[in-house]
Amino acid sequence: MRKKLWILAVSVCLAATTAVAQEPKGDVFQGKLFPPNVILKHQAELNLSKQQFTAIKSAVVEVQANVAEHEWDVREAYQSLMVELDKKPIDKEQVLEHVDVALKAENEVKKQQVTMLITLKNLLTDEQVAYLESAGEN
After folding, report:
1. Phi-psi region of 115 (alpha: psi -120 to 50; beta: other; left: phi over 0)
2. Domain membership flag for residue 64
3. Domain range holding 63?
4. Which pLDDT score, from 0 to 100, does residue 30 have?
5. Cα separations (Å) of 24 from 2, 58, 84, 89, 116?
6. What pLDDT sits at residue 8?
7. Residues of the chain with pLDDT under 50
8. Distance spanning both ends of the chain, measured CA to CA
9. 37, 108, 40, 121: which is closest to 74 by C-alpha?
10. How far is Cα of residue 123 from the mean position of the Cα atoms in its chain?
11. pLDDT value at residue 46
12. Residue 127 domain-assigned (yes or no)
């Protein structure tokens, strides 16, 4: 029970610190990039070609596979971090190494997601992009 509370406390602190320190308010890509669910929601209005639909699906599947691998790395790093935090005294260098591994994996996930969003936008015609921009959903 104590360990679960400690894990929760560390996770909340790390998430809050990361959110405050790195996350700008709102969507930084607002109006510039469109997630796949938004594109597919407007699929009929966009008149997506079979080729576009297939390419979108492939891009999403590819990033999901890559993200899953990095999520395992994040999970493993945080588990190792928790082991280190149970030691007395805590080895600060070891903890920071595990934090670095987790943050690098999380960063890689974000980069892959942005890469996918760019790929998706590049698959759309100028008219389709204009429609999504006017729809105000992203």
Report:
1. alpha
2. yes
3. 34-135
4. 73
5. 34, 30, 31, 36, 20
6. 40
7. 1-10, 12-14, 16-21
8. 41
9. 108
10. 21
11. 95
12. yes
Domain harbouring 47, CATH code: 1.20.120
Domain tally for the chain?
A: 1
What are the structure tokens assigned to 123, written together? 């698959």
In a domain, 131, yes or no: yes
Which residues, including other chains, have CB under 8 Å from residue 29's CB and lie 6 or more apart?
A: 114, 117, 138
Residues 6+ apart with CB under 8 A from 84: 90, 91, 94, 95, 98
Rg (CA), the chain: 20
* Cis check: omega of the bond before 35, within 30 degrees of 0: no
| 115 part of a folded domain | yes
Q: Which two tokens stand for residue 138?
A: 């992203």
For residues 122 and 29, is the Cβ–Cβ distance under 8 A?
no
- What is d(CA 75, CA 98) in angstroms, rounded to the nearest whole number? 10
